[in-house]
């Protein structure tokens, strides 16, 4: 079990260089698990005992399984995570040429440890809008793209030219974080391609102005997407590390990878849902809805049409409830009977910076999921929600630990408070412990992947019966 869950995570990570690819991989796994894709643009014809999923913007995905004893007004037990990670995203006009180099202009996305992006072998991945057909038969397709080999690098400045660099490496995000794509001399061998309708050209007064993107980059993307450069209408691309995710360490106890925050929790919750609904009898006695919601844009505040701050969660709950009853009052009842586990990676104790943790709250690797607490509601955990999650751990003999930030340090936040306040659902904030959070290369423990998966799976299987035993607002 331990190796298989961890190795499955490695496969998921290596298939998911961007949020779009993470959704693509989640779709594949859900379909293999018997989940049916539905669309928010169409009417839903839902049935008890059946399993469904939908995507929004192809960067957010919600999957749910309806218990065979579900009736309208019953609650959903949900795990929420996010598909995005801090990264460098290509600018709308990415072409930069200076000093004899061709470079690619990027924007910083989220709060990354940007110094870790230097001297890494980088490539690009994301999505493109591609034109197909001609004249009256033109259509536009959405296609994911990923160039596998390293094509870019952000080189550091030699210490000989910056003698004080080891006293504090300060990155100017505008000037210093510009990847090198090629030298101008070599690029001359590959003459620019003149296309009037390509994303690489800007029509002005009937003529093409200088390209928005290097023709060399467009040619690489077109080759990868099996199209012509002038068929690329637009794209959302980001720089990606090419080093694969691995199980590592002297005892093979760690996972070294980018994007563990938060694809690790996304994967564990997704696998738990699929496995907790895999057999014919899985939903036999289930009175609620088992759901996983993987949102985009958590790293930048969740305020988008597909972020946790959007109505996507409320829309899903509303449409599920209304599929079984036209009584609009039942949605409010369903919300009060629901529960969200906000799953986002947590800060493990760092052996070189132990003073950064409060002495009684030092999450450690191999010690299970971390329940996050904050009196100022940066996390949505309270005594009732933490009890429920802790009780499930105790019943299954799973380790659990607690985290509170030091009073003299600011506290990060998650989708937990956003969903709790926006939708009104009881919420607990948890996460697997990790080091190097927001680095291009992070690390966590193999054991905690297993613990997280088992804890989430038990939550899906047992929440309904446990919640029925708890009395609070009666």
UniProtKB/TrEMBL annotation:
Pfam families: Peptidase_M18 (PF02127)
Keyword annotations: Aminopeptidase, Hydrolase, Metal-binding, Metalloprotease, Protease, Zinc
InterPro entries for the chain: Peptidase_M18, Peptidase_M18_dom2
GO biological process, one term: proteolysis
Single GO term (MF): zinc ion binding
Cofactor names: Zn(2+)
The keyword rRNA-binding is annotated on this UniProt entry: no
Entry GO terms, CC: cytoplasm
Entry-linked CDD domains: M18_DAP
NCBIfam families hit by this protein: PRK02813.1 (NF002759)
Family the UniProt entry places it in: Belongs to the peptidase M18 family.
Name of protein: Aspartyl aminopeptidase
Source species: Heracleum sosnowskyi
Origin organism lineage: Eukaryota, Viridiplantae, Streptophyta, Embryophyta, Tracheophyta
């Amino acid at each position: 079990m331990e190796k298989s869950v961890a190795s499955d995570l490695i496969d998921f990570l290596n298939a998911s260089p961007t949020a779009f690819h993470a959704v693509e991989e989640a779709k594949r796994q859900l379909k293999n698990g018997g989940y049916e894709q539905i669309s928010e643009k169409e009417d839903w014809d839902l049935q008890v005992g059946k399993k469904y999923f939908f995507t929004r913007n192809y960067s957010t995905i919600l999957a749910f399984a309806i218990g065979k004893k579900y009736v309208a007004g019953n609650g959903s037990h949900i795990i929420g995570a996010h598909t995005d990670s801090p990264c460098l995203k290509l600018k709308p006009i990415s072409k930069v040429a200076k000093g004899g180099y061709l470079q690619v202009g990027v924007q910083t996305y989220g709060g990354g440890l940007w110094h870790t992006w230097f001297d890494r072998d980088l490539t690009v991945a994301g999505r493109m809008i591609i034109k197909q057909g001609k004249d009256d038969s033109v259509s536009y397709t959405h296609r994911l793209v990923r160039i596998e080999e390293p094509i870019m690098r952000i080189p550091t400045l030699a210490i000989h030219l910056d003698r004080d660099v080891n006293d504090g490496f300060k990155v100017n995000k505008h000037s210093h974080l510009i990847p090198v794509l090629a030298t101008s001399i070599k690029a001359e061998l590959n003459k620019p391609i003149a296309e009037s309708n390509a994303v690489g050209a800007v029509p002005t007064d009937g003529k093409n102005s200088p390209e928005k993107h290097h023709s060399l980059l467009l040619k690489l993307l077109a080759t990868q997407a099996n199209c012509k450069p002038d068929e690329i209408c637009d794209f959302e691309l980001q720089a990606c590390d090419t080093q694969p995710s691995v199980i590592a360490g002297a005892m093979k106890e760690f996972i070294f990878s980018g994007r563990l925050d938060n694809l690790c929790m996304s994967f564990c919750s997704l696998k738990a849902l699929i496995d907790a609904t895999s057999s014919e009898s899985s939903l036999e006695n289930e009175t609620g809805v088992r759901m996983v919601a993987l949102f985009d844009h958590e790293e930048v505040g969740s305020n988008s049409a597909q972020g946790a701050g959007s109505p996507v969660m409320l829309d899903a709950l509303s449409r599920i409830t209304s599929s079984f009853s036209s009584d609009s009052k039942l949605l409010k009842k369903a919300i009060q009977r629901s529960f969200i586990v906000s799953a986002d990676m947590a800060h493990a104790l760092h052996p070189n910076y132990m003073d950064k943790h409060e002495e009684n709250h030092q999450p450690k690797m191999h010690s299970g999921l971390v329940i996050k607490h904050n009196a100022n509601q940066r996390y949505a955990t309270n005594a009732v929600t933490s009890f429920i999650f802790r009780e499930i751990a105790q019943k299954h003999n799973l380790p659990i630990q607690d985290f509170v930030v030091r009073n003299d340090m600011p506290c990060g936040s998650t989708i937990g408070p956003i969903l709790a306040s926006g939708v009104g659902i009881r919420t607990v904030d948890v996460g697997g412990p990790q080091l190097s959070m927001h680095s291009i290369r992070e690390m966590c423990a193999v054991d905690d992947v297993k613990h997280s998966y088992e804890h989430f799976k038990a939550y899906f299987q047992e929440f309904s019966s446990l919640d029925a035993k708890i009395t609070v607002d009666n």
